Structure formats: C-alpha cells, structure tokens
Task: structure prediction
Amino acid sequence: MILQIAIKEFYNNLLTARFSIGFIMCLFLIPFSLVVNLKDYREQLKGYEIERAKTEKSYQVRVYSALRPEIVRPPEPLSIFSKGISGNAENKFKIRLETWVSTADGYETGRENPLLMSLFSMDFCTILVFVLSLFALLFTYDACSGERESGTLKLVLSNPVHRWKVLIGKLIGVCLTLLPVIMFCYLLSALFVLLAPEVSFSAGEWLRVALLIPVSLVFFGLFILIGLLFSCCFRSSAASIVLCLFVWVISIFIIPNLANSLAKSLVATPSTEELRAGNVLLIREMGKKINDYSQSIIKQMKPDFFYWDGKGGEDGYMEFAGASRSTMDFRRQFNEFREPLRIEYAEKKGVGQKEYMDQLDAQVKLANRLALLSPTDVFRQVSNALCRTDYDTRHLLISESLQRYRDDFIGYLKGKKVFSSYEYFTRQPPGTFMDYDEIVRVRSGGQFNSAAEFIKWRKEHGGDRSPLNKVPIPGTAITDYPLLELTDMPTFECQSPSIPGVLRQSMGKIAGLIGVELVLFFLTFVCFVRYDVR
Amino acid sequence: MLFHIILRELRSNILSLRMLLALVLALTVFGLGTLVFVANYKIDRKEIEHSSQQEIERMKAAAAESVSSLANWGFNQDFGPRSNSFISNSREDNLPVRFMYDSFKVDRFFVWPGRNPLSDSCQPLDWMFIVSIIISFSVLLLAYDTVSGEKEARTLALSLSNPVSRGLVLFGKYVSVILSTILVLVPGMALSLLIILSSGRIAITRGTLAETGLFLAAAILFVACITAFGILTSVLTHRANVSLVAALSLWLLFVVVVPNTALYWAQKLFPIERMENVMQRINMERENLEKGMPEGWRKNSASLVENYAKLENEFLASEMKVRRDWYNQMFSQYERTRLITALSPIAIFEYLCEAAVGGGYLRFRKNWLDMNSFQLQFLEFVKAADAKDPESPHAFSPNSWGISGKPVDFSDVLIFQEKAPSIQERFSHAGLYLLILFFYTTAAFALSFVLFVRYDVR
Result:
C-alpha cells in the first residue's frame, strides 16, 4: 500500500511544471558551476606552476645561508566541489630562521588582480544546496494542504488505509523524485571532472566525493521534512509555502552571515599592528645583542674587512669568495653566535604570533558553532571537511606540517653544524684563504707590498681599487664553486585530515541533523494524524 | 478608481501572513545587523586609528631625520571603515583599502591585512544586504500570485467585470506591492537608525541623513524593478504555484547565479597580464636604460651623483609607465566585469548603494586618483624643502644621496586627507546603472501589461 502511494506521488511530482523547471535549472546550473570552477582551478594551477618553478630554483644554492626552503601548496582539486576557505588564504610559505611560520607572510593569493578578491564565486555544493533544498521544499509544501484544498485528501483517507501509511508513502514519493535528481547532478559533475584534462582525482579523492552523496541525502531529507511539517501544520498551502521559504532564506542567507559577523564582535582578534609593534621591540633587543657581540669580537679579532666577491640577502644570506682570512674568521664566529640567537628570537616572536593565531582560530570556531543553527551551514562545513578546504585542514597545515618541517630543517642545519662552519657563507676551502697583505701583493702584481701601502694609495686616488685587478687569483669568485648537493635535506610532507578522521569529526554534525529529522518526522506524524481534512 | 484598487490591495497585503513574516524578519535582521555593526565598527576603527597613528609617527621620524628620508621612506595610507557602512559596506572588507606610497610613486594597494584568513568571506548584514535579499524575496512572494492567484480564487473575473481598464488594475496591484514593501522597509531603517543614535558611538550628520534618503530612493527603484518581474511571472502562467517556481528561479538567477559568476567572466573574457610578465618587462627596461648610460659613468666621480639620479629617475619613469598600464588593465577588467553582472538588478542595486554611500569601488577609484595627485604635491613639497638647503646637491631621485640631509619641520609636512565623493561623482557613477534599471523595470512592466491585457481570466 505504501509503495502504491509512493509511486503515485512520484508520478504526480514528475509531471508537474516545478519538476521540469527545477530539473532544467539543475541541468543548466550544475555544468555551469563546474565550468566556472574548473576555470578558476586552471588559473590557480597556472600560478602554482610558475611558483613551483621559482621554488625549485631556490634550492640551487652554493652556501647554507642561502638555503631557505620555499613551500608552495598545489591548489586543491576538490575545491571544484566545495571551495571553503581555499580561496582566501595564500599557499606559498618560506621557511626562515628569523620568523615563526604563520599566514602573515606576503600577499600571495593566486589572483593577479587584488580587486577580484571582492568578487564571489560559487562551487558545486553551493549550487546543489541552493537549488535542491528549494526543490525539496517546493515538492513538499503542499503535500497535505494542497491535497486538502483540491479535495483529494478526503478521498484518499476514506480508503481503508492508515494515515501514517499515507504520510510515509508521500515521504518516499518525494524522496524517489529527488534521489534521481541528486544522483544525476553528481554523475554530471563526475563526468565533467573526468573529461577535464588537467584534473585527475585519486581513488581517495573519488571516495571523498562519493561520501558527499550520503551527506547531501541526509541534508535534503531535512528540507523534505520541514516542507512536510509545514504542509501538515497549515490548512492553506499558500501559508505553508511562505513559511517554508522564510525558513529557507534564514537558513541560507541570514544565519551564516550573522554568525560570522557576530563571532567577529564577540571574539576580538588582537590587532596586527600591536603584534607588529611587539615584534619590533624584540627585533630591536636582538639587534642590540648582535651588535654588542660583533663589537666585542671586532675588538678581539681585529678583522680587516677586506671583501672581494660577495652577495647578501634576507634572513642572513651572505656569500663570499676571495675575502681575507681574518674577515672570513670573523664572519664564521659572528654567525656561530648570531644564527642560534635568531632562531631563539623567532621562538619568542612566535609566542605572540601563536596567541594571535589562537584568537583567529577561536573566532572561526565560534562562527562555525553559531552557524550550526542553520542546516545549510552544517552541510557546508561537512562538505568542506570532506573536500579538504575547511579550517581544520588549514590549521593542520600551518600549525603542524609547516612547523614540524621548520623544526626538521633547523635540526638538519644544526646537525651539520653549519652555523659554525665556513660553508655557511663561503665555498672557498679554508686552506686557500689569504691574508690581506698577501692578496694585495699577488693581485697588484707586486705594485704594493702590503695592505697598508695599498690603502694609502687608494686614499690618494679617490677610492680606486683598479690595481687589484691586475693579476686574478683563481677560486675567488662565488660562481667558481658548484651548487650544494642537498640529497639529505628533509622533505616537506603535508598532513591533511584522513577520511576516517573527517568522518569522526563530522559524525556529531550529521547525527545532529538526523536527530532533528527524527523530531521533525515525529511532529509531522502527530500533525498529520490530527489533520482536519475538511 | 486607481486609489480604490491600491487601497484594497494594500489592505489585503497588510493582513497577509507573508507581509507579517517579512516585517518580523526584516525588523529582526535590521536590529541584529545594526547591533553587530556598532560592535564591529568600534573594533575596526580602533585598529585603523592605531595603524594610522603609527604611520604618522614614522613620518615624524622621517621628517626629523632628513628631507631624503621623508622623500624615500614608503608610507601606508589606510582607508578605514566608513561610519555610514551600516547602510552599505559595499564589499570594502574584500577591496583594497591600504595604499603604499612615497614621494615618487603610489605603487601598490592591498586588502586590509587584519582580515581573518581562516574565516569564510561573508556579507555583513547591512541595509543593502537586507534589501537585496530579504526585501527582494518578500517582494516576489507578494507579487507572484497577484494575478494568477486571483485567477485561481476566481476573484479576478469579478474585478475585471467592473468598468475599469485592465491596465489600471495591473498598475494598482503594482503600486500596492511597492507601497507594502515600503511599509516593511521604512520601520526597519528607522529601527536601525534608532539603535545607532542610542549607541552614541556614531554621529548621524546631515550627510548621513542625505545618504539615507539616497539609499531609500535606490531601494524604491530596485523594489519597483523586482515587483515588475514578480508581476511578470504572475501573468505568465495561469497557476499560482507555477508562477512561484518561475519567480524563485528568477530570483536565484539574480541573487546567486549572475553575481557569483563574475570571477569567471573576469578571467575568461578580460584576462590581464600575469605579474611575472610585468616584472620581466620592468627589469628589461631597466637593463636597457642602464646600457644607455655613457661608458664608465660609475667611475666618473665628478658627475656620479647627477648621473645616478638621472638613471634612477629614468628607472622610475619606465617602471611607473608599465605599472600604470597594468593597473589600468586591472581597473578595466573589474569595471567590465561589473557591467556584465549588471544583468542582475540585485547587482545594479548594489552599485547604486555604493554610489549612495560613496563607498566600495567608487571610493577606491576616487582615493586612487586623489592619492596620485597628492603624491605629486608631496613631491613638490619635498623638492621645495630640498631647494631650501644650500648644501644639498639637488640631484633629486629615488634611492639617491643627492637629496638634502637636513631635517624638516613636521608641522609643514603634507598629510593625505580622504574626501568623500561629491554628489556629481556619485551620480555619474550611478548613471549608467540607473538607466539599465529603468530599462529592466519598464521592459518587465510593459511585457506584463501586454500579457495581462490578453490574459484569460476564466
């Protein structure tokens, strides 16, 4: 009997204008959203390739002080399905001794035009949620009230059939109508992904997409029950549709936006400017220590600061060749003190940064928790988690993977004792270092016998260094030496939440949805049993 | 007669459930949105004042050091939250609000760095949001069954049997929907203003009131447009539930589909040069300029400072030419994309609000132009300060040591002041969009008129 009713409902639904309009909407919007997202993904991939090429160059170094690994994360292919926060955070990181890992590094957003940040784009899950939840409501809002208005409900119930059977039959009928549409949308999207040459999903990724299906079924079930409940609560279908639609607007537009802005005003993030000011103080303190130390060893070692070929850059990069022995010795001793100190201060700066990050986390967590009031947002959070574009994945990347890699990298440098070695800043073998006097004698071809003579001559000739170009000394240009072989460098491994982990985390949310559904079903049942069919 | 029809329709609207729900929802969101705005505004304001204060301190330090430092240090100019952004935030959370400049150039703009990168981009619940989502939705719910619903209830045939023209009936219905929407909108706005007044943190000036008036005008035009579409869906079919589906599809198209495809159109139809290319071009120009210098100029100490300054100025000019060109590409990409999104009246309404409050992209563009002319004045000022110093080599260029090393009195230093867009600027920004909105409204209404005249009331 139930089956009969269900099949009748199914046919009825199939023949309505709303079914054809809704189906055409899906047919038009789903491919469109996929095309849009594939295009965006392709753009991001282009940017990623360029960045990765640059990153590979960053490992072609001659000295350890130039070695600062750069990490570029490839764009997430699953973001085609659910974008999450993958669009608004940068995906390039540089491991430095001086700074603790954080997102505050640079402005790499993957989009060339910063103005485009203000344009929104939708993903597959958003479209699915918008169209199909509306669809679910439109099929159910008049299930009961509409039949009462047209007078058929009386006829149906005059048959020897229990009311609950009619209700369940209607429910199954609507589910039967929606199920093929949902499956059709997923199959269509899978087809698009399969046909797109630049995207190839692994088995695990397909599994994640497949897991989206049961989650979306649970989600749409909720909207079906909301529609059914209102339909059984009201005598006129006009009233029930109006209520359904208001619930829909509140759930999709109002609650998520309100939750975000409310969280912002409830959990104030410390200002970035204060953070910067705190860092400036620490940097000053460190600078003073470094300066004091260098003064003291300059007094002690009396280096002559004769440089020949050299280069320098950020985060302690320096590379020399052909400098005098005392200069090289000074540099070595200076680095031995300075680099560990910089690492120590990075930790100190990290404390403030960690606090800042924790506040950002707290804000997002609160926003997510507030947004749980809306079933749409529950679905969004679960689908983002499945598609690795949610906040947890990001958190794991920043505070676990990148941090561990930074520690590994520093451990690697320390293990090789590079801070106290000459290789940190020069590849010239220490045996070939020369004194200033000797360098001047050889280079000038005997024009000067000592450094003092040359310095005096140079002063008289306006700082001219050209006599030193007379006789070249081999091995005094930085390019004379080969690149470092970095076979034993630690490699970066990105952790992302595993599928069982995601499921365990999302279990509560899904269980909540199912719980609400049970309550709604019970209420619908009560209302329907007491429904006045006249 | 028209008055009669309007009054009757209005009465039935006011007594309907949807009107009540719309009113409750709109009032709640107006209230909550404004409360959240007041709290967030305080936080944002504090942050921006902090950072502006620091920039002033840096400027003071530069002025105390030397003319050269003042000329060469880069400064940030931040454009903080507007006090009228409770009317419309105009996506300023996602638009660049920080410009970097020194006396030679304004060369970069950034989105506010204090934004939480972990949170989803959300729309603040400002008036514009409420009107473009809740009100437009309520309008469609009020309008979708004005004709098809009456036909189903069989009252349409009765009304039309009276000696009254069909056009007048349709117009009466049209006006009454707009009027009932205004009855929802105005109390909400009043509530919101009341909350702001009682919070005491934000002063409501005459300018704000004028902007409120402009917003109300834009909202009424927008509501008129959406109502015309709603009535169109109603006369399109003979059954109310089909009109409802049509109205909702139209709404989804306007609210979700068109605005959300903007990024796609931008990338697909108006691609711009990649940053790497631009940088490469800048570097190539640099190399060429360096080659063009006379042989051995670096060793000629007599004219070194002049030559160096000349080269640096040439570098600057060539780089700024490339950069300006690139920025213009960005602006035109963005503007053209906006024109495409003008397919949706909701996007148009957003741009109208932007003009009404003088925010969003209008503000960005104005600030960008003002900032560029300010930089020229700033350059003149620094040059004048340099000219006063007889010891300076007067070789004025970026990164040079040819500028005076004497300190400057900070009280003379020019500081940028943001100016709100004038009325003319606002109207010229809104002009095209207003025209498109008028076109949509008249087209939709004319079409529904034609269809209604031929409507079978049986």
Chain A touches chain B through 78 residues (CB under 8 Å).
